[in-house]
């Protein structure tokens, strides 16, 4: 479970990439699963494609932990989602037909510490900055 921007933060909608592989490194197709909180409440569901790759979006809450649960070959597997931080910025990029949309999201805890700072967004295409 890989956060889209390299890390996930509390109280912001985060996208997690999902890669499910067998012991030989091949993707396991069409696995379905769900993410639960500490109280075993289902937060969201997911399904990977024929290559064992998918994504899921959810908003982690502060002081809560999350576990992904999936079943394959009559065996239930669970994976802690450990990479959720209290502060940070989530960067996501979406391509459309003729545009690229860059989205930056943060939570209140982070905003308090960065709101007066100045930032520059740099785009590089491999040749031109």
Folded structure, characterized:
The protein is mainly β. Helix content is 5%, strand content 44%. It contains one helix and eleven strands. The chain has one helix spanning 108-114, and strands spanning 2-3, 8-9, 14-19, 32-36, 42-47, 53-58, 66-72, 75-81, 84-85, 89-95, 100-106. The strands form four sheets. It has a four-stranded antiparallel beta sheet, with no helix packed on it. A hairpin with a 4-residue loop joins strand 10 (89-95) and strand 11 (100-106). The two termini are 32 Å apart. The model has no long low-confidence stretch (mean pLDDT 93).
Keywords:
mainly beta, 44% strand, 129 residues, 5% helix, 11 strands, 3-stranded antiparallel sheet, 4-stranded antiparallel sheet
User: Beta fraction of the residues?
Assistant: 35-45%
**Residue share in helices?**
under 10%
As laid out across the biggest beta sheet, the strand order is 5-4-7-8
Weakly predicted, low-confidence segments: none
- How many angstroms does the end-to-end distance come to? 32 Å
**Mean pLDDT level:** 93
What structural class results from the helix and strand content?
A: mainly beta
Q: Sketch the topology as an H/E string, one letter per element.
A: EEEEEEEEEEEH
* Largest sheet geometry: 4 strands, antiparallel
* Total count of helical runs of at least 4 residues: 1
Shape: flat
Number of strands: 11
Q: What is the CA-atom radius of gyration, in angstroms?
A: 17 Å
Topology, please?
Layout: E1 2-3, E2 8-9, E3 14-19, E4 32-36, E5 42-47, E6 53-58, E7 66-72, E8 75-81, E9 84-85, E10 89-95, E11 100-106, H1 108-114
Parallel strand pairs: 2-9
Antiparallel strand pairs: 1-3, 3-6, 4-5, 4-7, 7-8, 10-11
């Amino acid at each position: 479970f890989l956060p889209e921007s390299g890390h996930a933060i509390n109280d912001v909608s985060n996208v997690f990439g999902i890669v499910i592989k067998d012991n030989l490194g091949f993707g396991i197709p069409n696995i379905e699963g769900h993410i639960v909180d500490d109280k075993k409440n289902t937060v969201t569901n997911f399904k990977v494609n024929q290559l064992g790759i998918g994504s899921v979006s959810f908003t982690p809450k502060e002081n809560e932990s999350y576990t992904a649960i999936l079943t394959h070959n009559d065996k239930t597997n669970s994976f802690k989602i450990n990479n959720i931080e209290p502060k940070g910025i989530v960067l996501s990029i979406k391509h459309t037909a003729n545009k690229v949309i860059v989205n930056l999201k943060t939570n209140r805890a982070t905003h308090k510490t960065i709101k007066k700072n100045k930032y520059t967004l740099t785009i590089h295409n491999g040749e031109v900055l």
